[in-house]
Specification:
The chain is mostly helical and 206 residues long. The chain has three domains: 79 residues, Up-down Bundle (Four Helix Bundle (Hemerythrin (Met), subunit A)); 35 residues, no CATH class; 40 residues. The protein is extended. The mean pLDDT is 78.
Length: 206
Amino acid sequence: MFVQLLFYGFSAILIAAALGVIVARNPVYSALSLVLAFFTSAALWLLIEAEFLAIVLVLVYVGAVMVLFLFVVMMLDINIEEIKRGFTRYAWLGWLVSTVVIAQMAAVYGLKNFGVDASVTVVRNAADHSNTRELGEVLYTQYVYPFELAAVLLLVAIVAAIALTMRRRPGLKPQIVAKQVAVRRQDRVRLIKDVRPTDEGRGDTP
């Protein structure tokens, strides 16, 4: 009973945070609402004894991705009025995608032959059970080829991003490490002696 109350409580917070992401006028508030949604999702993972997925969600998304999002949002000059101007134009597409997602979730929850049986309760494991080991065994045995394929695709994406960033463009000032290492102090620093006027009645200078 207590676990069900926690589930419904965290679910309500998660729905409110998700609404805050798309309703908030300030992009910083929207990103902070997404952080709250990630934390609440991690709490729901903990309720079904998926500790590894919960801590990965907090460390990776909240600790790394969302910090990057907040940095980009706060550094960029985002024109809110321009964003609002195109919101009504593509509102029908957002409603269409939302309807499809809700229909899929309802199908997974309601149809036993299509998705999961919601009436089946979660089986509690022993205290020495490791879901990290269970996840690793499934990931590196049954789904090892899709896992390796995803790793290769991510590597290709990283190389492509670096290649696009490092391409030569007019007016670009690339970083030349060899010249930076070979620089001398005499070429960069010029020492100037500060000679101030003498004090009245004293002949010393600082």
